[in-house]
Amino acid sequence: MRRRNVLTALVTAPIALSAVGRTATAAPATGTAATKKKGVSAWDFNGVTQCLADSRSGWFYTWSSSRGAITVPTGVEFVPMIWGPNSVTDAELNQARQQGTTLLGFNEPDHPGQATMSVTQALDLWPRLQSTGLRLGAPAVATGANVAGGWLDSFLQGAAARGLRVDFIPVHWYGADFNATNATAQLRGYLQSTYDRHKKPLWLTEYALIDWSSGTARYPTQAQQAAFVQQSTAMLQSLPFVERYAWFTLSTSRGDGTGLYAGTTATQVGAAYRSAG
């Protein structure tokens, strides 16, 4: 959402779009009951597999159709993503298809510097994602998932009109109130209003406390962020319409004040997240 320099560096866009689609198939069933709701976003770094296992996350993603050089720990699921328009290629779609049962759609198409797509462009490309046969998450907007007439609302209405399939809705949320109780209530309100509007299961695929009101990132203390982890994860575990959630992000190497691990050592925030779920 607001980590633009980080996410842009993570994505290597393919050169060209493929013009050939395939016939859509029905969505497979949701992943196994053993998969935990708790997950995390990650990228390659020294010790990433150890940190993933230590975090006790049930799943992770990398903003890509590939897990890169990450070795997936036993019992952990990798979920691929088709990041943006230049990722809609035969190679990336085939790679995503081989990863499992679920596919995440475009990353923040409503935000400059991320996927940056019009609703019409996303709808035109959507049959290619649907053709994988994977369970399919909507494009994850940066903001306003609950807003009538917003980017996501317009996309979902367009998808329904075209007979396209969207199985669940990924959302992003970053809070500027560093009081854990207040922030947890604000997050819950956003999730509830998004669900009430669209009536589809939610995945919270990015969240943390970061204040951007001054134009420069301001982070809470480790104690404040850890308190928010404890309260928010308890809330997320209890919401039946939230299927999964993922903290931003696994490592402090690019996660600044939100990363769960410094090297391979859990931060105070990481220790709180490890105990959650």
UniProtKB/TrEMBL annotation:
Per the UniProt entry, the signal peptide is 1-26
Ordered alphabetically, the record's keywords are:
Hydrolase, Signal
What Gene Ontology molecular function terms does this protein carry? Answer: hydrolase activity
All copies of the Asl1-like glycosyl hydrolase catalytic domain together span 53-273
Q: Does the keyword Signal apply?
A: yes
Record has Kinase as a keyword = no
Which InterPro entries does the record cross-reference, listed alphabetically? ASL1, Asl1_glyco_hydro_catalytic, GH
Sorted alphabetically, which PANTHER family does this protein's record hold?
ALKALI-SENSITIVE LINKAGE PROTEIN 1 (PTHR34154:SF3)
Can you say what this protein is called?
Answer: Glycoside hydrolase family protein
Q: Which organism is it from?
A: Streptomyces levis
